[in-house]
Amino acid sequence: MLGVRIHYKPKFNKKPILIAALPDMGNVAGLCLNFLVKKINAKIFAEIYSFWPPSVTYKKGIINFVQSSYKFYENSEYNIIFFTGDFNPTDPRRLYELCYEVLKIAEMFNVNILYSLGASLKPINSIEKLVYAAVNKPEMIHELNKLNLQILEDEGQITGFNGLILGIAQEFNLDGICLLGEIDNPNVIQPKTSQEILKVLLKIINLSFIDLSELEEEEKRKKFMEKQMNYYNKTINQSDLPGIT
Questions:
Q1: In angstroms, how far is CA 45 from the centroid of its own chain?
Q2: Domain boundaries, position 225
Q3: Contact 174, 106 (CB under 8 A)
């Protein structure tokens, strides 16, 4: 069982929206949430404590115990609640428990709509990286069409918290929209994809004035590091060839 601690109850002018996501492939969702929380100066108002880590640290004979937690942030000016954390549970039971606890908090504050964010692997033959959208109720498809969003077609799965939360939200009669940005490498941080998702999300929630240039700079740093690493690997490989010292 997870432990919930509410530090204070924020007051909103109208029904708030909930943006909830945990780190996933390329840390796309993690980047999005951390950026937004920082950018609009959201404050922690509640936490869900998890059974992690299964250890303590010590220094000079003194034990230090820091229990990991998932955090709820709020900004009452924009009527937004954020939920995020450092890791996405892999144990199904813990994952379900976490989703239910998040939605209980959403119910407590009469949340109007849930937005979930995440990454999707780009097809090999695809050139452009797209942002796709899906909804948790059939009658909401027209909302995606009105917003001119690319609908997630065919069939498939959205795994982990960022997908499951949308399904369980149906039990709470809570509308949900999922935005998925395409990536080509799940093992490399993806600032550009996070930026593209946020462009869509901020347009939907009328916060397009937020400057996303920090993510552009992060993408430039990533590409620079990739070039450095490729050059290093190329140099190492060449040094292994016969006759080259």
A1: 19
A2: 211-245
A3: yes
DSSP-assigned beta bridge partners for residue 82:
19, 73
Q: Is there a single domain that holds both residue 187 and residue 229?
A: no
Q: For the chain, which residues score pLDDT lower than 50?
A: 224, 245
User: Which pLDDT score, from 0 to 100, does residue 3 have?
Assistant: 86
Give the pLDDT confidence of 13-69 residue by residue, as tens digits: 999 999 999 999 989 999 999 999 999 999 999 999 877 778 999 999 999 998 888
Are residues 237 and 195 part of one domain? no
pTM of the entire structure?
A: 0.85
Return the beta strands (E) in 126-206 as ranges: 131-135, 150-151, 175-183
Instruction: Give the torsion sign (CA, 87, 90, 91, 96).
Output: positive
Q: Between vectors from CA 97 to CA 38 and to CA 117, what angle results, nearest 5°?
A: 40
Question: Residues 199, 215: one domain?
Answer: no
Q: Does 216 lie in the same domain as 101?
A: no
The tally of domains found in the chain comes to: 2
User: CATH code at 134?
Assistant: 3.40.50.10900
CA-CA distance, 149 to 96, in Å (whole number)? 29
Same domain, 151 and 72: yes
**Is-contact 112 169, C-beta < 8 A?**
no
